[in-house]
Each structure stands twice: as structure tokens, then as C-alpha cells.
Design goal:
179 residues, mainly beta, four-stranded antiparallel sheet, globular
Length: 179
């Protein structure tokens, strides 16, 4: 994940038609950001900023605000837990905007509606809701804990609600969010 010549552990930016890396990519290749363990979902907010949901290994899953050229720390740092070397204190590492403990998490899907981030969790069988405030996530709520089983996919619907996809019960659910 720390090797900029490898595509593993990265978020990539490429041209839809293929070919060379887009102009403006930070490293002259397809790599947009690096130091990721296992990205599970991506979503854009109303300002066009990219948010990512990532599986941790042992300690924490994380929600990240992705920056061009950003290093998110894996494998030295997992969430906010140092794993080796200087870990999360390594200069230049981007800290997560939210972290989740494994028993409540294994968060996968991410969707954004009206600048609220919704994160679906498998092992935790719940959804988190965070409000975006500047570049931070605030007013965190847990929703549907244990109600619908493992929530894998979270996607905005055209009418301002959410579609949820479950894993295990294998259902697609429509959530109306109101206004």
C-alpha cells in the first residue's frame, strides 16, 4: 500500500476510455491516494469531495475524506491505532474522519444524501449516519442495529432517500429520509 508503483492499496483515477493516466494525477500514474488496506465504497459530497469507507484488519474500520496524493497510513496505521514503526504518528499520514470497532462494524457501503454520510456495516448489522461539517463528521447516529442483518450496500435514491442492500437476508430496502 505504501509502494507508489503498485496498484494495491490505492484509490485510482483513470480515463473511462482507458489509455494513459489523466493529467493532474499526483504521481504520474493511476494512483490518486494510497496507504489503504481495503476500500469498500466511495461517495461524493455536494462539494465534489470524495469520501471512502475502508475495512480495517484487527482494530478499526475507517471513513476517510480522500485528498489528491494523500497517504492514509496502511500498514503502519490502522484507523487511529499504530501497528508498526512510527505508526499513526508518521508525518504526512491523513487521519480518518470516523473509526469503528470491529464488533460494531465491518463497514462496507457508503452513500451521501444532503451532506449526511450513511455507512452500512456487515458484522455490526447496522448503519451509521454522520453529518458533514466542514471536513469533519459530527452528530453520529446508529440506525437499524440488528434490524435488517448485515448491510453491505448504501446508495442514494433519485428521490433523496437510500437504497440498502443486505448480505445474508439478501434484500434490497428503500429508506425514506424525509426532508
Amino acid at each position: 500500500a505504501q509502494d507508489l508503483q503498485s496498484l494495491a492499496g490505492k484509490i485510482l483515477r483513470l480515463n473511462p476510455a482507458g489509455g494513459p493516466a489523466p493529467a493532474g494525477n499526483p504521481f504520474g500514474n493511476y494512483v490518486w491516494s494510497y496507504g489503504h488496506r481495503n476500500p469498500q465504497g466511495l461517495a461524493f459530497d455536494s462539494q465534489g469531495r470524495l469520501w471512502e469507507q475502508e475495512f480495517g484488519e484487527d482494530f478499526e474500520d475507517e471513513t476517510n475524506l480522500i485528498e489528491k496524493g494523500g497517504n492514509y497510513g496502511w500498514p503502519l496505521c490502522e484507523g487511529t491505532v499504530s501497528r508498526q514503526g512510527s505508526g499513526c504518528q508518521t508525518p504526512g499520514f491523513k487521519p480518518p474522519k470516523a473509526t469503528y470497532k470491529p464488533l460494531e462494524a465491518s463497514c462496507s457501503g457508503i452513500g451521501i444524501v444532503r451532506d449526511a454520510v450513511y455507512v452500512g456495516c456487515l458484522r455490526g448489522s447496522r448503519m451509521y449516519r454522520h453529518e458533514i461539517s466542514g471536513s469533519n463528521l459530527i452528530n453520529t447516529q446508529q440506525l437499524f442495529a440488528g434490524t435488517y442483518g448485515r448491510i453491505r450496500a448504501v446508495e442514494p435514491s433519485l428521490d433523496g432517500g437510500l437504497w440498502l442492500g443486505t448480505n445474508g437476508f439478501d434484500r434490497v430496502l428503500k429508506v425514506n429520509l424525509g426532508r
